Amino acid sequence: CNSNDIRSNNLKISPVLCKLFPNYPNPFNMTTQIIYELTMPASVYLAVYNIQGNLVQILVNDLKSTGNHQVEWNGQNTSGKQVACGTYFYQLTAQNDNSLFKKTNKLLLIK
């Protein structure tokens, strides 16, 4: 489920499908945990972006079951290199046959 491929014209935007919680710790040094909860199975796309909006790392791109899910980001990009200190954004998109959820939160990497 790539967020660019989602067609929302027949879907209803649903805050009920998913809850995205603030990452912990934030700010973080080595790793941070991102937790989300699904009320029903959904295709999930969770990615980290830099302040310019460029993709840094895809953390989840898969069908996930109902319940709580936890993902760790270690501050690395898609090439496995440590990113610079600064502000980043993580965006979660969850979609099933009837609903679409999308939310973005901010995180801060310090060293």
SSE diagram, text form:
Layout: E1 12-13, E2 18-20, E3 32-38, E4 42-50, E5 55-64, E6 67-73, E7 86-95, E8 99-109
Parallel strand pairs: 1-8
Antiparallel strand pairs: 2-3, 3-6, 4-5, 4-7, 7-8
What keywords describe this structure?
111 residues; mainly beta; 8 strands; disordered N terminus; 53% strand; five-stranded mixed beta sheet
Describe the structure.
With 111 residues, this protein is mostly beta strands. The protein is 0% helix and 53% strand. The strands form two sheets. A five-stranded mixed β-sheet has the order 1-8-7-4-5, with no helix packed on it. It has a three-stranded antiparallel β-sheet with strand order 2-3-6, with no helix packed on it. A hairpin with a 4-residue loop joins strand 4 and strand 5. The N terminus is likely disordered.
